[in-house]
Design goal:
By secondary structure, the protein is mainly α. Helix content is about 65%, strand content about 0%. The protein has 9 helices and no strands. α3 packs across α8 and α7 runs parallel beside α9. The longest helix is centred in the middle third of the chain and has 29 residues. The relative contact order is 0.14.
Amino acid sequence: MHSTPSAPAAFTGDELPQSTGRSLDANTGSSSCYAQLLGLLEGAKPLGAVVKSIEPYAARLTARPGMRGFFRGDATGIPLHGILTDAPFGAWWSAVFLDFYKDEGSRVAAKRLVAVGVIAAVPTAVSGWAQWSMKDHGTKRVGIVHAAVNAAAILVYLVSWAARESGRHELGIGLTRAGAVLLLASGFLGGHLRSGRPRRVPKLPRTESTKVNGTL
């Protein structure tokens, strides 16, 4: 009888190694500026001090197994934060698009979308901190920068809404576009936080099908 090699077990998310202070791409020798930036952020000691001061508060969001599973997205397979981010990002980018039109209807719609984005950013931020509390220490350092950029974007959009509300539409438009730049920077860091460290699944050895007595 021919025995088929058993498949090696894949590593699960709970078995992933902790961060070594450098990003995954940096550890594999990538020389990209983005990978180097991630490596610097993951190893930044001042960010580590901020992480330690915030961890106890963020951990309360996921202290109960039920809430941890809720934020982690056990029921849907998608973390809650990844779903909620579509609301503020979608509203703000739609406002950027509408700002290219000068009619009054587009102005009103853009102002409302900016306000909707600011409101939607609140539950999105809460879910983000919950997800952040379940990351390894190096990734949490990147998360601090991600949160700071998001906070700056929310403040910019809040001021943009206030400017539009007072009739200073051109200022509001300029601030919205500046906020879009912050959203791009935040998106890059958020992508790293969502992907984390991928599961290491060993490749199965290739085996040729052998015909024995007319059967496989």
